[in-house]
Write a structure and sequence with these properties.
The chain is an alpha+beta fold. The chain contains 4 helices and 5 strands, in the order βαββααββα. The strands form 2 sheets. A 3-stranded antiparallel beta sheet has the order 1-2-3. The chain has a two-stranded antiparallel ribbon with strand order 4-5.
């Protein structure tokens, strides 16, 4: 069961770190794993009365996810680690749920969207905030608007 908000552990368990280090050809083998912190907040949830995988119904959550650090595939790996993989993620996702979205909803993309970005300018040090005007992509909102 998913809690409405939380923090993914700062270090993933050793086996995942080893896989991560060996799959990234640019990672230094002698460098210890770096901290990776992700916070999340559940904004909406929906249950679909269709069997997917081994379950009689499928439950999905719309999350606001904030990477507190920036590591390769951090959001995708952390959500998989807490058993809530991102729909459409062919590497870290769930093939049954990906197939359900593709076949029943016509959605064949990674359901991850950056709606805003905050960072310090690398030369001036000033805070920079970029906000997407449209917010979430329509196909994401369409699923959750049907739930009411």
């Amino acid at each position: 069961m998913m809690v409405d908000n939380g923090m993914v552990p700062s270090f993933l368990p050793l086996p995942l770190i080893v896989v991560y280090k060996t799959t990234d050809s640019k990672a230094r083998r002698d460098k210890p794993p770096q901290e990776a912190v992700t916070s999340y907040l559940r904004k909406a949830k929906v249950e679909v009365a269709e069997p997917v995988g081994r379950y009689e119904t499928a439950r999905y959550s719309l999350l606001e996810v904030r990477p507190e650090t920036g590591r390769k595939h951090q959001l995708r790996r952390h959500l998989k680690h807490i058993f809530h993989p991102i729909i459409g993620d062919r590497k870290y996702g769930d093939r049954d749920h990906n197939a359900f979205f593709r076949m029943t909803l016509g959605i064949d993309r990674l359901m991850l969207a950056a709606t805003g970005l905050d960072f310090s300018h690398p030369f001036t040090g000033q805070s920079v905030h970029i906000q997407a005007e449209t917010g979430f992509p329509e196909e994401i909102l369409r699923l959750f608007s049907k739930a009411g």
